[in-house]
Amino acid sequence: MKINDFKLERYFAKHEFTAKYLLSSSDCDGFAQNHVLWHASEKELSLWEELKLGYTESEGNPLLREAILQFYNQKSIDNVVVASPGELNFVTMNVLLNAGDHVISVSPAYQSLYEVVRSLGCELSYWKPNPQNWEFNTEDFEGLIKENTRLIILNFPHNPTGNYITQQQLDEIVALARKHDILIFSDEMYRKLMISDVEELPPVCDIYEKGISLWGMSKSFGLAGLRIGWLVSQNRDFLKKVIAFKDYLSICSSAPSEVLSTIALNHSDEFILPNVHKIKKNVSLFKEFASAHEIISSFIAPKAGSTAFVKLNIDDSSLEFCDRLVERTGIMTVPAEMFEYEGKYIRVGFGRENFPEVLEVWDRYQRTVGK
Ligand SMILES: Cc1ncc(COP(=O)(O)O)c(C=O)c1O
Fold it and tell me: SS3 of 27, please?
């Protein structure tokens, strides 16, 4: 199998650990291991202290899968499979798709959502939002459905725009999927990062018998280093195939990560709420920055999630702008090119504690260069 480079990840690889400031990360700051252990009950702490570092179950530690179930209407841990989020995305596409299948994916999007599909020789159509307000239109979506459409790929809260659809829109999509017998893979990595007062959507696996939901510890919980994610689906045959495919990849997850994830899930408010608070605070700071600087052509604040896709008022390309900004100020930002999106945009990530400091550095720089 041949697959194109993951542009966004290659760009991060170039700058993430050398740039002084990160302004485009989609994850929230990583919590300290002690923050997790500090919230553990006595019983949970003993899981950690008595942990054996052998292989664990391919489908995921049963205690972790129990902890995951509290966020879904599914009643059995057999409806849950654990691996890293990126791996689960890769495996899902490989298990579900054959060359020639047609797939509809949201776009712009985290590249692996559509690149794995491409690598399998599938036909792709993109469901794009209106760039004036980043709203997704369900009629546009319906127009993309074909005879051979096998899979719909959703991602709400949406990375990078921070947009969200309504319950009515989701219901319409599910109804169309059911009518045309199409599977839905719903990447819900930013679930529960509710930044505005929009209504929270249910996970797709709970409302559609052919729906698959992906979530994990990386974004909402601020625990990306654990590398733990999970799929939940009513379709157990599909999940069995995922487990079998994993035998060629990670086989099972890291035992310490599974225990730490279990603890964090059982005390989720201690992780998610501080992140929501931080994102909201940083979004309002960015609103002020955007109105003070001509370089920001338009800023549509996120409804949910941790990112926004911000239009720039620049003469050169977004990539040239980002390369220059990191070189001159040490601030790393991600240009639209990393999302294969035309136009002058950068992604801004709001989940970092030092966001105000980074904005000050950018503010000083902008004042010296003008526009
Ligand atoms: C929409 C989306 N899905 C999946 C992932 C992958 O998550 P992880 O890096 O934890 O594997 C990301 C990471 O940025 C993402 O933004």
Answer: coil
The predicted-structure confidence for 135-160, as pLDDT tens digits, reads as follows: 999 999 999 999 999 999 999 999 99
Q: Which residues of the chain have pLDDT under 50?
A: none
| Global confidence as pTM | 0.97
- Please give the DSSP secondary-structure letter assigned to residue 130: B
**Residue 108 Cβ < 6 Å to ligand 1:** no
Rounded to an integer, what distance in angstroms lies between the CA atom of residue 219 and that of residue 206?
21
Parse the chain into domains and list their residue ranges. Answer: 7-32+270-366, 52-267
| CB of residue 213 inside a 6 A radius of ligand 1 | no
Q: Is the CB of 218 under 6 A from ligand 1?
A: yes
Our answer on whether the CB atom of 349 is closer than 6 Å to any ligand 1 atom is no
* CATH class for the domain made up of 7-32+270-366: alpha beta
CA–CA dist 171, 175 (Å, integer): 6
Q: Is the CB of 257 under 6 A from ligand 1?
A: no
The residues that bridge with 305 in the sheet, in sequence order, are none
Q: Which ligand 1 atom lies nearest to the CA of residue 224? A: 10
Token pair, residue 18, equals 């050398």
Give me ligand 1 centre to Cα 216, in Å: 9
Q: How far is the CA of 25 from the centre of ligand 1 (A)?
A: 11
For residue 215, give every residue at least 6 positions away whose Cβ sits within 8 Å of its Cβ, in sequence order, or none: 71, 85, 188, 189, 191, 203, 229, 230, 232
What CATH class has 52-267? alpha beta
Q: What is the pLDDT of residues 22-75, one digit of tens each?
A: 999 999 999 999 999 999 999 999 999 999 999 999 999 999 999 999 999 999
Residue among 194, 237, 245, 175 nearest 212 (CA)? 237
